[in-house]
Write a structure and sequence with these properties.
Chains A, B, C, D: It is an enzyme of class 3 (hydrolase). Chain A is an alpha+beta fold and 308 residues long. Helices cover 47% and strands 11% of the residues of chain A.
Chain lengths: 308, 308, 308, 308
C-alpha cells in the first residue's frame, strides 16, 4: 500500500484525461428538477493522503450537491450524540432494493433495513433533531463537516432543498409511512425539511475528501470521530453504501463508499486515504457512472482494496 | 496489524475457556437429521498466520460438516475453470433474505442474487459439473481443498449427504425452480446430488483455516488461486457471506467470512491470517452463534478489521 | 328467492336478539381516534326489498361512519362522469393484501390493484375532483347519496374527517406515493382532504340499504345508475369488497358486499334486495365481525346467494 | 333469465362463425410440449340447460386437455370425502399472482392461497390420495366425472401426463416446497404423478358442460354434489377461478368460471345453465383468449350474469 504521491498524481491526471475523452457519462438524476439542470459530462477527483497532502484532478474544486453522501455525516453526528440507540429504530443489513423502496418497510413493519437507504436516513435525521429546531440540527451537521474538512466554506444550496420539497413525493410518502409505524418522533414535514436541506449541502471533491479523513482515520485528521465509530461507518458503507449496487461496488472497487444522486462518491481506504470522486451522470442503480469507474481504476492502481 | 503469536495463542486459549463457561450456545440446525445429532456445546478455533504457524484452541481437530462454507471453494473452482462466465447466471448482490428463500428467485426470473445463498450455490455447482459425472466434479473440489489445506485427510461424510438427499425438499424445490427458468443445465437431481455431497465435506477447524490461506493470500499458501480471484471471493464473503446477517457480521467483525449450518465459519484477514471457528449452535440467521462471537473477539483483540 | 316479508322481519328480529346475547363483538378500529370512541357492542340491520318495503332490526336508525363503503358511491359517480377511463389508472383485480398496503403499489408502479383498497380509492377520489374544489366534489357525492336513499338527512361528520387528517399517515403516504408515479393529478393534500371527508359521511343502516337499491337494480329504486354500471359495481364488490377477506366473504355469504372500518357493510342481492348491516367491532381483516356473521345468516335464511 | 333455446342456439352458431372469422386467437401454452402441438385456431362451445337440452356450436365434440379445470372436480371429490378439513391446509382467497407463483407460498409459510392455483391444487390432490395408490384416486375422479357427465367415454391422455412429468419443473418445485413446510403428506413425486394425470384428462366441451350441471345445480343433474358444496365451488370459481385475471373475468362475464391452459373454461350460471367453451390460444393470464370472449358474449346475450 506504499504509494508514491507523484505517481498517483500522474495517474489521476491521466485518468481525468481518459474520462474526458469518453462519451458514456450516464444520465443526470431527473427527479429533482434543480439537479436535472447539471451537465453530465463533468468529472473531478481528490485524494487526501495520510501525510496530509490532497491530490486533485479535473473539476476537484467545483461544488456539487452531496445528496445521500450526507447520510454518512448525519449518522456520525447521531452516533456521537446518542450512541448505539439508533439501532433500535433502523437495521444495518443491505436491502437488496432501490434507494427509495417502500416495499421492505411494509414487510419489516416500519424499521428500515439500514441508515443509507432513504427510509433509514429519514429515521437518522429524525433522531438528529432530538427536540431541536431544524436550523439547529442543520447547524450541527454543517459545523461537523466544516471541522472535518478544515474549511468554513461549506453551505446548503437552498434552491436544491426547495426543489426537493416541492417534488420529493416519494420521500414524503416514506416519512409518513414511518410515522404510521411510530418510527418518526417529529412531524413528518419537519423531518423532511431537515432531510432535504441536509441533502442539499454543496461541497467540492476536495472538501469531501478532506471531510472523509476522519472516517479513514488518517493520522492528521481532526479527532472528532472515535475509531470504533469510524470502523462501523466503514462497514455500513461497504455493505450498504450503494443501494442495490453495493455488492457490485465491493466486488469491483473493494473499498467502503457512499454515493449520492448528485454524482459524488466518498470512498475510504482505511488508514491510508480518503477519496472523493464526482461525475453527475448516473448508472442504473443511481450511482455515479464515471465516479464508480474512477474509483475502480484508483483502487486497481493503488492496490488499496481491503480485500488484498 | 503486527500481532505477537504467543499473545494471540494465549488470547485464544482464554477465549476457549471463556466460551466453554457460557450457556448460550444457540440451536443446532434441525432440518438435516444427521446434523441434528451433533451436540451444540462444542467450540474450536484455528488461526493460520502469514509466517506459516497455525494457532489452535478448543476442539480445533474435531471434524465437522462444512456445509455452506464449501460454496466458497466450489466458486473458486468454477472461477478457475471458466472465469467470469458464471456472472451471467448468478448476481453478486446481498439478498436481504434467508439462505433458502425462493421469493427473490421468482421476482428476478431465476437468476439468484449471489452464489452464497442456496439458489446461487446450486447454479455454481451446476456450472462445476460442466458435462462431467458428479464423482469427477466432487473429486476436483476435494483435490482443490486437500491441496489448499496441505492435508489429504479430507473426505465426504456420506451419511450426511444421504440425510440431505432424503429431506432437502427446499433445495429440491430451488433446483427445479431454477430448471424451469433454464438456469440449470444438468438434470436437477444430478446437480442436487453433487451439491449435497459437496456440503457434506468434513473438515477440522485447523484444516479449514489452512485451506483459507490462499483466499487470504498468505505468502506461504499454495499458489492455486489468482490474487484477483481471491480479492473477489473476499468481497463476496464480506457482502453476502452470512445471508441476511451479512451486514451485522461486517459491522461487528469487519472481516470477510462464510458460514455454514454445520457451525463452521471461515474468516479471512487479507494478507494477514486465515481463521476458522466452529461451534454447532446457530443464531436466528442460521450462522454459528459462538463462532460469530469468537470471530468478533478475535477481530477486536487483533485489530484485523479491514475497516481500520 | 321468494321470501315472505313477515317471515324475514321475524328472522331479523330474532337475529338481533341472538347477536345482542353474544360477547364476541371484535375490536373497534383504533387508528382513527374519533372512531375508537364508538362502543363495539352495537348492531343494526336494514333490508330494502323489491316491493319498496324496508325491514329493520336493532339500531337501524343509528348513524355510523360509512368509511370505505363510500368508495362504492364515489366510484359510481366517477363511472357516471367519465365512464371507463378510470381503468387506465386503477385495476380491478383482488389484491390479496391489507386495505392500506403500499407493497403492491411499488411492484405495480403506482397503479393500484382495484378501486376498493385505499390506494385505489384515492385515485378514484382524485378523478372525482376533475378540476373542481373539494367542496363541489363532496357535494356531488352527498347529492348522489341523498337521491339514492331518498333522504336529505345525510351529512359529513367533520370531527371524524379532521381526526383522520391529523392521524392518517398511511393514507398520506399512499397519496404521495401515487403522486410520485404521476397517478395523482391534484396536490396530494387536496385529494386526501376530499377522501377523508368522503369517508366521514354518516348514515344509518336504513339509509344505506335504501341507497344500495340502485346497485341491486330494484324496480322502485331511483334511476340514477345504468344497469351495466350496477353490474360492474357488484362484480367488484364480490371480488374486492372485503380486502384480503373477500374470498372468505364470497364463500360464506355469496353476495357482493363492501365493508368499512366504521363497522358498516352494504350487501347486494341483485334484483332482489339491498342489505345494510352495522356493528362497530372488526375482525382481523378489518371488516365488521358481527356484520359479516349477520350477512351470512341472512343469506342462508333467504337463499339469496348468487351461487345457487 | 328466461331464454328461448332456439334463439340461444342461433346465437351460438353465429358466435362460432364470428370467432372463426377472427385472427387474434392468442398463443397456445408452450411449456407443456404435448400441448404446444395443438393448433390455436379452434373453438367449441356447449351449453347444458335446465330442461336437459345441450346446445352446441363449433368443435363441441373435439377432445381437449382439461388441465386446471380438473381442479374443480378433485376439490369436489375431496370435499365429499373429508368435508371442510381441507381448509386447514389451503386458503380461499384470491392470490393476485400467477398460477404457478411460489412467492406467496414463502410469505405464507406453505399454506397456498386457494385450491385453484397450482400450489393449492397440489395440496388438494395430496388430500385426495388419502393413503391410496394414485391409480385408485384417479379412478375416483374419472368415475365422478363420468357420472356427472353421464358419459363413460372420458379418459386420461397419458402422453400429455408424461410430457408434464418430464418438463413440469415448476410444479415439481412447488410440491417439494410444500413438503418442506409439512403441507404434503405423500412423497412429492407421488402427488405430482397423480396431479399430472388428473390434469391430462381429456374431455369435449359437451362432456364438460354436462359434468358442470351438478355445480349449476340443474334440476336434472345427477345428485352427486350437495347444494352447499356446489355453492362453495361457485364462490371459489368466481373469486379465484382465473388466477390473476379473476377480477377481470367477474367484471366482464359475471359468472363463476374455471379455466385450464388447455384452453377450456367451465362457466356456471347457478340454477340456469352449465357452459363449456374451448379455444386453445391463451391470453396473458394463461386463460383462453377466445373462450373468455365467448363467455362474455354469451353472458351478455342471455343476461345470466349473477350481478343483475
Amino acid at each position: 500500500m506504499d504509494i508514491d504521491a507523484a505517481e498517483l498524481q500522474s495517474f489521476l491526471t491521466d485518468l481525468d484525461a481518459d474520462i474526458r475523452a469518453r462519451a458514456d457519462w450516464g444520465e443526470v438524476a431527473d427527479y429533482i428538477p434543480e439537479l436535472a439542470k447539471v451537465a453530465p459530462a463533468q468529472f473531478g477527483v481528490a485524494v487526501a493522503l495520510a501525510d496530509g497532502q490532497v491530490l486533485q484532478a479535473g473539476a476537484a474544486d467545483t461544488r456539487f450537491s452531496i445528496q445521500s453522501v450526507s447520510k454518512v455525516f448525519t449518522l456520525a453526528c447521531v452516533l456521537g450524540r446518542s450512541g448505539e440507540q439508533i439501532w433500535t429504530r433502523v437495521g444495518r443489513e443491505p436491502s437488496g432494493t432501490r434507494f427509495d423502496s417502500i416495499l421492505l418497510l411494509e414487510q419489516e413493519k416500519g424499521r428500515p433495513r439500514n441508515p443509507f437507504i432513504n427510509a433509514g436516513a429519514l429515521v437518522t435525521t429524525d433522531a438528529l433533531l432530538a427536540g431541536r429546531a431544524p436550523r439547529e440540527a442543520l447547524s450541527e451537521v454543517l459545523a461537523f463537516l466544516r471541522l472535518a474538512a478544515g474549511d468554513e466554506d461549506i453551505h446548503i444550496d437552498r434552491a436544491v432543498a426547495l426543489s426537493e420539497e416541492r417534488t420529493g413525493f416519494r420521500n414524503i410518502a416514506l416519512a409518513n409511512y414511518l410515522k404510521s409505524f411510530n418510527n418518526m418522533t417529529n412531524p413528518p414535514e419537519m423531518t423532511l425539511g431537515t432531510y432535504f436541506h441536509q441533502c442539499a449541502i454543496e461541497m467540492t471533491a476536495t472538501q469531501l475528501a478532506r471531510a472523509g479523513r476522519m472516517i479513514a482515520q488518517l493520522p492528521r485528521a481532526p479527532a472528532i470521530l472515535a475509531p470504533e465509530k469510524a470502523r462501523r461507518l466503514n462497514a455500513l458503507m461497504m455493505t450498504c453504501g450503494h443501494y442495490d449496487g453495493s455488492g457490485d461496488f465491493a466486488f469491483r472497487v473493494g473499498l467502503p463508499g457512499k454515493s449520492g444522486v448528485g454524482g459524488g462518491i466518498l470512498v475510504i481506504a482505511p488508514g491510508v486515504a480518503s477519496i472523493a470522486v464526482w461525475s453527475p451522470g448516473l448508472n442504473l442503480y443511481g450511482n455515479s457512472h464515471m465516479g464508480t469507474f474512477a474509483a475502480e481504476q484508483i483502487a486497481r492502481f493503488t492496490g488499496w482494496s481491503v480485500f488484498g
